[in-house]
Amino acid sequence: MASLDPSPPAAGRYHGDQAVAPGMLDFAVNVRHARPPEWLIQRLAARLPDLARYPSVEDVHRAQDAVAGRHGRTRDEVLPLAGAAEAFALLPNLRPARAVVVAPSFTEPAVALTAAEVLVHHVVLEPPFGLDGALTGAIVPEDADLVVVGNPTNPTSVLHTREQLLALRRPGRILVVDEAFADSVPGEPESLAGDSLPDVVVLRSLTKSWALAGLRVGYALGPPELLARLTARRAHWPVGTLQLTAIAACCAAAAVADAAADAVRLALLRAEMVAGLTSAGTDVIDGRAPFVLFRRPDAVQLRKHLYHRGIAIRRCDTFVGLSEEYLRAAVRPEWPQLVETIDEVRS
Fold this sequence. Notes:
Layout: E1 2-5, E2 25-26, H1 38-45, H2 57-71, E3 78-81, H3 84-90, E4 98-103, H4 108-115, E5 119-125, H5 133-139, E6 146-150, H6 162-166, E7 174-178, E8 200-205, E9 218-221, H7 224-230, H8 241-250, H9 253-279, E10 283-284, E11 291-295, H10 299-308, E12 311-312, E13 314-315, E14 326-330, H11 335-342
Parallel strand pairs: 2-12, 4-5, 4-6, 6-7, 7-8
Antiparallel strand pairs: 1-5, 3-9, 8-9, 10-11, 11-14, 13-14
């Protein structure tokens, strides 16, 4: 079930990196690896001498063509971004009169829209945070002309079906699907990235899978008319040469195959981690993302205990629809250390 909550997000600008002090074991941030692969570092390093020049049209087209080839789109359906988060800052350019954010979810869309004085409602899903297409479609106000939903959703890790997402479409409404973590799900079974639909924009991030959080790399997929509206007030040269190079490189066929194989390994690691967290007395939410949402009545005490033991974890009371009893942990090979430390604090 779901309920309608028109209130703005609490602490919407809080992010997991704020929980991490130097030297800590980091389960708060969802970047998959400690550093980019060597081949990608070399590819980026090769472009450093070009930084005296502005990004070229050829660089933009190479990035667009690589993304288009990856998803079966055309060049004009691809918008390179300075991280998927840039797209959230651009959402007010769509000039919605009434926006809906399906929550719990990443907070930046609501923050950006609210700052632009757009009326924002939250459709708050109840545990286990699944999206029932018919019910949620009915509870979204019919006059909502913009709906934003994550898939898989941060922080719940829930993967909605294509049918559930498409049930949110209405005449005169734009559906924005945040697929920042979609490439972490083997086969990307519920993705809309390959669908050319006149009212759907899909957002993708490359920063998590390729350890490029410090570079800010992503892209949007959608009809040219909507992408043009998104960028109506965008600054010149918004995406730099290194970012465009990274987009082209990470969307090449070999890189996509590597990421797909890594997603399979990550899914197996996640299953082991979920079993460990469950054995430590946590209530784990079923999901498919490269992070795990779980609930403990003593979560506040637990988070402080972990911090003092040098382990960072993401608090979740800053997300609309979640209480202080929820915590989120990135999937890491070091999960046994997390579980062992959690087991020291029995609720």
